[in-house]
Amino acid sequence: MRVAIVNLMLAVYRFGAVLYATSAAVSTIHLIKITVDQQCLRFLGFTFLNLVPLMYERIHARAVASARRRRQPAARRRVKRDMLMAGLLPAYLACTAMSLVSVGGSILGAGLLMMQSSVFAFMQFSLRERLEATWSCLFRPCAMALAILYRVGTPETKMYIPRAYELFTRFYLRLLTNPQQLFEQPAPDLFSYGTYQMIHGFS
């Protein structure tokens, strides 16, 4: 009887040790995921903000091309002004939000109130207008830059790009549908988007 009790206690102890080791390993993997996601966000922010001159050049080129279709000088000036506002407003919001996302900061108090007017003006556009104003000037340059970096980058750079692209698409969708949330809670939930494989077989 005593032998059976001892064996049972040993079995429980071994099961507890295995369970503890498993939970510790899972916690370590989650910590690695969080660390990798933070590095991916910093890499994404660095890449995105370095493309700002190209984005503004594309916004200006679209505005000029649209204005040339008008015959009257007054109509040209009006169309160019409207196109610049439609393009520069989301670019300003995206650059501000991306700088917050990449460093894990947020805007509170008076700063948030100042951003609300810009967010309100952006939300007056329809979803189609928001998509047209941001797709070719914001999303496509960054997506192409990530693709080029994946092709010619170092192995360490290639390791971050798949997750950085996933985080960027989430950021872009939040910008289109709920830009206010980007300033209230800039950083997304780091590994709530499903499992992924990043380094050393962790998934």
Question: What is the gist of this entry?
Answer:
The chain crosses the membrane at residues 12-32, 86-113. This protein is mainly α and 203 residues long.
Structure keywords:
disordered C terminus, globular, disordered N terminus, mainly alpha, 203 residues
H/E topology pattern = HHHHHHH
Secondary-structure content class:
mainly alpha
Query: Strand count, sense and closure of the main sheet?
Result: none
| Proportion of strand residues | under 5%
Total strands: the figure is 0
Keywords: Membrane, Transmembrane, Transmembrane helix
Transmembrane segments: 12-32, 86-113
Outline the secondary-structure elements.
Elements: H1 2-50, H2 52-67, H3 73-103, H4 110-123, H5 127-152, H6 155-177, H7 179-184
Helix pairs in contact: 1-3, 1-6, 2-3, 2-5, 3-4, 3-5, 5-6
Q: How would you describe the overall organization of this protein?
A:
Helices cover 81% and strands 0% of the residues. The chain has seven helices and no strands. The protein starts with a helix and ends in a 19-residue tail after the last helix. With 203 residues, the protein is an all-alpha fold. The protein has one domain (40-184). Keywords: Membrane, Transmembrane, Transmembrane helix.
